């Protein structure tokens, strides 16, 4: 079978995990990735995960400070299809490999720039470190109350790295499609700061609406204090009789009913106070039922409950585990998310476990090459090849400024967050995305105050609402399938077939269609029949366990309540957006395979696999690997040089990963004595005496304000930033840095009027992005039917018969 990217060469000029994971994904699907490293190698090879994100690549070491090294790099770039670079624009210009210079030599070259905070603006020079970006962007403050203390709290899961690496891979794939149409390459920009917008489902729109229409929105959008939040009954973590914790995820009423039946909590059906949704119960009744759930769950072990819920088939639940435990999870193993391979570096000949491909493409599958090169291992052979390469020339087939995915039709059948948000990224790249909704709309439209979440997950789309259980409804959708390039759904197995839009149906109508299944567990494994919601992969992949600072152990009712509260706050919404990033990558891999090889196919993405990537800093094992750092009970951080500190006014996050950064920190703070102190002079010594160093730094940080520390250190490229300036929505709405980078756009929503939205996380500079707001449910129903050839009388009849619908059909809306 062909590889999606066979014959494509990518030069990796990035350092660290973000660009490293992006090019790993591209290498897995056939690209020849040449990693250019300084003498001695990428400084972030010190990270245990580097053996994973270096896999499948060839390594060339070049001294780019020397003329000979720069000349060799330009020779290497001759004939390359794409470059992934984390050099700043100033650094790139200094060595003559900025986009403008490279494009002048080879107009077909794609240049993907990966940064921490974007290419310009007051924060542009700040280190591109996970903790630094999350703290400065307000995400750590959003976790306030997870541990019972005030102030920002350390955010554990590497979500900015994850979404940005997937955005970089997606950006290269999208630019390859555009280059095939136009004959020209282009610059693509992604940043970790903008990657974080994937997790801001309503913050920016809330801040925007509060500022624009305060009288209308202030009362509705007042937030509950984070420390006082308790889990919704539907998403309740519970402790089993053996002390293990189980995460429930029965968001929709029928799922909650399934749980109550399987758990034999029959009082929900016999006591009038429990009628309707738990959200409508009186507070005292809800808490009484919560206590009853806690008591009932303690009557069996986690394994016993797992078997009961699995046999029932319609209960959403999983057992909490660590990422290392997840490496043995049968659902992950049987779906190909864990590869056990020979490890030539093992002293005793043991195998290694590494993460599998990002998605399962059935006709153009990945071919993972697990070996990571040593620095410079391929220098001679690669440079010899480059001497024979020729520069490309633009063909000019289509020089018009059409969006990157212009002409691509996507049908989005998915609901809630993971699938819809992934499709919205495709809309931002210029695809025409039609959201196919049930009568009454995607259930997510009516959740949360003001229904603001779906604005983020559906931006840039059109919407048709149709009853697929009717013959006429299926005929409408099948007419769309016949025209589509890509179909995305998150139905459980068997549902699409019953509705007439299974892969077999779609392929008969449209043999070249790319068909993406998005579900919880994947098509294989013991849980393939089970539903899943966002707390499930959070608990199953170890992210929530790590974020909570470990599993709660107290067994009294009060201790279980507090443990459940902490786990609920730790297991926040990130698993759904984590999956959306992979949906975008998988869809573009399918579109590129179709363009290059003429192959339509079925593709499988699941939430467990996507969240393995989000926990990619720990989702691997090899003999002698360094364990993932532990987080302290107060959720300050993982060590003295990667944690939160109180200052004389406010909080900062300190993020130092390299030894030279420690030296610069000591010099800038006037504490050169610490750099020469034998207790702290080396990384190993600092690890041994972490408690003592933390005490020293706690005292040091109280001598200035948070803003003063950031001004002193971050402005010089040392990772120390204020962590409590505001929540993400407020930061994005008011920050001068966001404005300088054009990371926010004003659009008009059909119900709410003018408001701000996040700019696309993949910024394409040669083929423009398409920026729009989100549709109302079914807003384009009539227009799409007209396009399909239905008359006005036909459309009126379909509305009357309940076959189609739009939001204005709700009482009081017309």
Helix share, percent: 25-40%
Query: What gyration radius follows from the Cα positions, in whole Å?
Result: 26 Å
What is the SS-derived class?
Answer: alpha/beta
Going by CATH, the homologous superfamily of the domain at 403-531 and 574-612 and 766-809 would be Crotonobetainyl-coa:carnitine coa-transferase, domain 1
What kind of sheet is the major sheet? 8 strands, mixed
Mean pLDDT: 94
Report strand order across the widest sheet.
Answer: 12-18-17-16-13-14-15-26
The tally of helices reads 37
CA distance, first residue to last residue? 54 Å
CATH 2nd-level architecture of the domain at 403-531 and 574-612 and 766-809:
3-Layer(aba) Sandwich
Low-confidence stretches: 223-228
Just give the CATH class of the domain at 403-531 and 574-612 and 766-809. Alpha Beta
Q: Report the β-strand fraction as a percent range.
A: 5-15%
Question: Explain this structure to me?
Answer:
This protein has 814 residues and is an alpha/beta fold. Among the domains are: 226-328 and 535-570, no CATH class; 403-531 and 574-612 and 766-809, Rossmann fold, CATH 3.40.50; 640-729, 2-Layer Sandwich (formyl-coa transferase, domain 3). It contains 37 helices and 26 strands. An eight-stranded mixed β-sheet has the order 12-18-17-16-13-14-15-26, sandwiched between helices. A seven-stranded mixed β-sheet has the order 3-2-1-4-5-6-25, sandwiched between helices. Helix 20 (453-457) links the parallel strand 14 (432-437) and strand 15. The termini are far apart.
